[in-house]
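Structure (tokenized):
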């Protein structure tokens, strides 16, 4: 599932492609993509509008429109935007179509069918259920030790589970949680409340550094002319990872063998020597 750096890359690409574009018509092809909007309402709310902003909040994409509405989008596991000419064939798993000026169509395709869209009045955006409980952005000044330390202190979950909770650490997912714990030298099964102050002081910058490095790396990669955020899935950024996906390989720091354990239905990768 795309995490903060991947979603940031999609937002940057969308800004280059569609900021200021006019949506002449919007079409919802899969009802469960936007469960709060029947197809006719989806079309009415989004057709004949202009895109005024494209931003990110956590793992959500916020597409602002000039009719005082915002389209919230969550890519989930395989959702992606594709820019096509009017005459081009639609992808097999097309769930929504936005017809733009210049004889273009912005298509939302989702092979796994987990993507999500919701139309919200822009004035009510901060109160939207999907956004109002999110933690501060981890690269923002609000995400500091004074924010993080007391929340760790009262949590009885493992530190890995804590890091995946979007109400505690916004935008972080499985990959970068594993990476942050490795760089902070923290055992992933340790209870969040048991972290000492020195460990917290290592974890806080580690979270920010692994995310910032990934954002910077993705911003430097070539942009596909059609597939928005092309390359954010799969192993395309594995050169950034110290432990994730490297089970059975040697640790880059100490040479120990990287291990994988299940936690909360997901795989956690760690170094048993660096993360004692």
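Design, position by position:
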């Amino acid at each position: 599932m795309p995490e903060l750096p991947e979603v940031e890359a999609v937002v940057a690409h969308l800004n280059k492609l569609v900021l200021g574009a006019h949506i002449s018509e919007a079409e919802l092809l899969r009802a469960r993509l936007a469960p709060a909007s029947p197809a006719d309402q989806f079309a009415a709310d989004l057709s004949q509008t202009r895109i005024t902003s494209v931003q990110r909040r956590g793992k959500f994409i916020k597409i602002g429109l000039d009719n005082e509405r915002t389209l919230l989008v969550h890519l989930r596991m395989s959702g992606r935007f594709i820019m096509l000419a009017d005459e081009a064939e639609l992808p097999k798993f097309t769930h929504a179509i936005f017809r733009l000026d210049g004889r273009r169509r912005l298509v939302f395709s989702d092979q796994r069918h987990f993507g999500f869209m919701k139309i919200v009045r822009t004035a009510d955006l901060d109160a939207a259920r999907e956004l109002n409980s999110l933690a501060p952005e981890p690269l923002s000044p609000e995400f500091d030790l004074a924010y993080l330390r007391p929340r760790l202190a009262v949590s009885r979950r493992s530190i890995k589970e804590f890091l995946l909770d979007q109400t505690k650490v916004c935008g972080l997912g499985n990959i970068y949680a594993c990476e942050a714990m490795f760089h902070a030298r923290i055992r992933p099964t340790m209870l969040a409340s048991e972290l000492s102050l020195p460990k917290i002081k290592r974890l806080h910058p580690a979270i920010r550094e692994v995310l910032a490095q990934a954002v910077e790396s993705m911003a430097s990669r070539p942009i596909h002319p059609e597939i928005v955020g092309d390359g954010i899935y799969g192993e395309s950024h594995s050169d950034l990872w110290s432990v994730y996906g490297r089970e059975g390989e040697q640790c880059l720091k100490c040479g120990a063998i990287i291990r994988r354990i299940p936690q909360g239905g997901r795989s956690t990768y760690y170094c048993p020597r660096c993360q004692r």
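Reviewer-requested clarification: The mean pLDDT is 94. The radius of gyration is 20 Å.
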